Predict the 3D structure of the following.
Amino acid sequence: MPAPNVFAVALAFLPVIPLQGNLLFTLSHSHFTLVLTMKRTTYTKYNGDLADELSLEDLMQQLSDYLLDSGFQNPYSQFQEMNGDFTMDNLREALRQALESGDFDESMRERLEQMAADGKIEELVDQLINRMEQQEYIRIDQPGDPSNSPSNQGGDVGEGSGQARFEVTDKALDFLGYKTLQDLMASLGRASAGRHDTQYQATGVEANGSIRPYEFGDTLNLDPNATLAAAMTDHAADHPGEPLSWPIEVDYKHLHVQQSDYQSSCATVVMLDCSHSMILYGEDRFTPAKRVAMALSHLIRTQYPGDTLNLVLFHDSAEEIPVSQLARVKVGPHYTNTREGLRMARSILNRQRKEMKQIVMITDGKPSALTLPDGRIYKNAFGLDPLVISETLEEVSKCRRSGIMINTFMLATDPGLVQFVQKVSAMCRGKAYFTTPETLGNYLMMDFMSRKMKTVH
């Protein structure tokens, strides 16, 4: 009789033994069978919500021409019929056009076309608007709520129409400013955004190679070589003819520190000309100026935290506006009251306790208006009016006496204007840039970051 199967006898009372969930032993009195089972995973096509997959940042960038409209009737713009009116109907139409003409990959384009064929684009648009509101890119104002009606500050900001409207939030403006700054920095090539250098020196961590004796209150950024050399020189003078012996006593008078460039904070006022000439002559000059102002705001807040930026619009008169209102500003009224803009900018800068103060003036027209002492507006659009010019230059002189530099970015090349701008620059030791809407941002960023004292013609 054959010997019994020890393994089978030992496990005779266990008909099935599971091992790790996948391996099974099936046992009987006469034999056992090894059975291997494998887990099964089923893969299906992902049919997620398309509204969640689309990038809101890309859509905001595609809508930027609509969101930053300045009143220029560009016949080639896909958003021309909306006239910059921030109604919900216009936003839906703008999103439809962005989805229709946007740069999407092939898979995304096929899904969008399928949704259009199924009549679900309107549902997608509503979902995107909800996402934009939830992520605080827009704020929806319902009609009939007087607290949400836009104030007519900062030029012409449009009129209410009784329809549901929306407002561009600070977050959206900050994003658009960041994208503009990103484009401008890319066009400039490599550039490091440090702080504002000055002609002065101070003790600090970043050394420039200059060394001087330590004075009370200095940052204790000691230069060991100069400190030891001073101590050794004194030791040799006190013990003539004796060999140098260690240790050497280092006294207060021996201390030397390394110097770094003294970096100052700066107060900047951007003066934007919003007279009607900024959208006349077949060219939109105001929208690029708005983009540059937003990019400058983002640069100052992220790279120059000690700086301040204020915005002043000048037309028939002048007014200060917050950055949050910039997207809604359109051109108008008609004339150019440069003197009133400078007066308001000077008043703002005089309240700032900064060592560097500057005005960045972006304009394309000659001064053609003046606020009289009694508050009336004197206007003359024909030529360079002697009264307007003399009063404007007097305000420039006051800016110079207050230590304010004026850098002018002129979007026109009329000979009379060139002469006027050159005189303003000479009086305030500023710079004059005669540029175009396409190159305005490059010149302004280079000026702000380089601080080179030169005039570009």
Q: What stands out?
A: The mean pLDDT is 77. The two ends are 114 Å apart (CA to CA).
